[in-house]
Amino acid sequence: MVEIKNLVKKYGNKYALDDISFTINSGEIVGFLGPNGAGKSTTMNIVTGYLASTSGTVVVDGKDIFENPLEAKKLIGYLPEQPPLYVDMTVQEYLNFVFELKGCTLNKQKHIDEICTITKIISVRHRLIKNLSKGYKQRVGIAQALIGNPPIIIFDEPTVGLDPKQIIEVRNLIRNLGKTHTVILSTHILSEVQSVCNRIVVINSGKIVADEKTENLNKTINENTRYRVKVSGPQRDVSQTLRNLPGVVSIESLNERDADAFVYIIESEPNIDIRKKLFKTLADKGWPMLGLEGVGAELEDIFIKLTDKKGKKGE
Ligand code: ADP
Ligand code: MG
Which of 2, 56, 242, 272 is least surrounded by CB atoms within 10 angstroms? Predict the structure, then answer.
C-alpha cells in the first residue's frame, strides 16, 4: 500500500535520512519509532508529499508521490507534528474549508457530521479553535486528516503535550481507526507503539534499525531483566560481588548515594530470578539491601541494542 524505497534526505552535508526502505501493507497499524531527531517527521513529510526527498521513491497504492502527487495524496490523511489549524475559525468552518481544499465530492454535511462523531468533537463544532483545549485541538487535527475518507492515515507524535486522560482517548481513537484504515503512528514513545501497533519500524539517526512484529520486538527488548538496587556497603566490593552472582549480565554503579548506601542497576538473564540469591548474598556479607525494584529498559538502551544487533548481522 505504501512502498518507501531508498529514501535519502540531506540538509546541507548532513543526512537526515540515510537510505530508508520499508513497505506498509493494507490494514496494518505500523508504529514508526525513534528518538528525537531520528528522522521520523522528515520521513512522514516526504511520504505525504509535503517535502521533497534528495533521492528515493514513495509509491502509494501504485501512485508515485512525486510524479502523481494529487492522486497519491488523496489516499493519505495526515496529522503532522504541528497540526495546520486555522485558529480564528470555528471547528465547523475549518472542516468545511479543509473539505473544499481537498476537493471532496462526498455529501459535505453528512461527511463532516460523521467525522465529528468519530472524533467526538460535535459539542465544540461552533467554537473557535483557538479557545479549545490541546486535547480538542488534537481531535480537530485528526478530523481534518479523516476528511475525504483516505484509506491511509499518518499520525506524527499525536499525543505529545496531552494530559494522561487525553493520551488514552487519542490512542483509543487511533486503535479504532486502525480497524478500518491503514495507519502509521510515528512517535518516540515505546509504550505507545507497543499498545497500539501490530508492527514496529524503528529508526535511529536516519537509518532503519528494526522492522518487526510488535510481539517479536517485545521479546528482543525484554531479553534481560533490570533491577535498581540500593545497598549499604563499600561500592567496589559490592559491585564485584554482584557481578559474580550467577545470572547477572551487567552491573552499573550510579552516581547516587545515600549515606553509605550506593545505587546499582543490575541486568540479569530473563529466565533466572536472581532476587533471592541477591538478598542472601548481600545479607551474608553484612551489606543490607535498602531497596530493590524492577526497572524497564531505557529507550536509548533499546536503540543501542537494536543498532548493535543489526550491525552484528552485517546488514
Ligand atoms: P524526528 O521527527 O524523528 O524528531 P526530524 O525528522 O524532525 O526528526 O529530524 C531529523 C534530523 O534532520 C534532525 O537531525 C534535524 O535536526 C534535521 N532537520 C530536520 N529539519 C531540518 C531542516 N529544515 N534543516 C536542517 N536540518 C533539519
Ligand atoms: Mg518529529
Answer: 272
CATH number attached to the domain at 2-221: 3.40.50.300
Quote the crossing angle between the two packed helices 275-285 and 235-243, to the nearest 10°: 140
- 226-295 topology per CATH: Alpha-Beta Plaits (3.30.70)
Q: Is 39 in the pocket of ligand 1 (CB under 6 A)?
A: yes
Ligand 1 close to Cβ of residue 34 (< 6 A): yes
**Most informative mutation of 18, 41, 46, 154 for ligand 1 (most atoms within 8 A of CB):** 41
Strands 225-232 and 289-295: antiparallel
Name the closest-CA residue to atom 13, ligand 1.
Answer: 37
Collapsing DSSP states into helix, strand and coil, what is residue 33? strand
Domain ranges of the chain: 2-221, 226-295
CA of 9 relative to ligand 1 center, distance in Å: 10
Q: Summarize pLDDT for 165-205 with one digit per residue, the tens.
A: 999 999 999 999 999 999 999 999 888 998 899 999 999 99
